Amino acid sequence: MLNKLLWRCPVCKTNDSIVCRKRTLRPDLVSCPACGSAWLLLRVKGGTDFRFRAIAGPQRGADRPLAAWYDAMREGFALAAITDATAPLAPGETLYLKGHAEGLRVLRMDPRFQAVIARLPPPAEPPPPDAPPLTEIGEADLFLTDRRLIVRPGPAGAAGEIIGPPLATVRGVQLFIDRYLILRHERRLVEMFEFVAESPLKWQVYLDHALRPISSAGGVKIHMAYD
Ligand SMILES: [Zn+2]
Could you tell me the residue ranges of all domains in the chain? Predict the structure, then answer.
């Protein structure tokens, strides 16, 4: 669970590097193999909050609330182009993030799934007559680019890539429990991504940054919600 919250190291900022080891009768040991940091996960005295005490690495000795380490993790975040030879990119398209097949399940659905999207503002447009039915894609690779999310189903699907609606049509992003990321597009199309192992928070942060130039260029207000 902790690696869903701390989706990159608060010290060296390496993605998906945090490992948490439960220990009998001793505090959990949290570490980052990328920079050699290690922390003890301790309770804040008299409270229910947690704190991290660094026992190895560049910030050895630092003892701060978990929220402070979380803020440090977010500090200085910026989108950076990555390369992946298997990514199905169009010419000039920039890849920002790839999700792994074993940890990702994708559902693409129509707007009738109202219970989950109820907290987003109601869309102005009527539902399209050609709204796709609820489709479970199953495990898949997921690529975030500067233009769209690309879903590539695993071997079971083997149906090739599914190019999602462009980011330019996103009107709302919602994080639901600590497992679901929901994108609401124009025309009431909804995509829902279920993350089993990966951090949906990580995808939310990347999406937030990828959507910024789109919302400022188009003057569109994109609603971000957290449940
Ligand atoms: Zn690190």
Answer: 2-74, 95-226
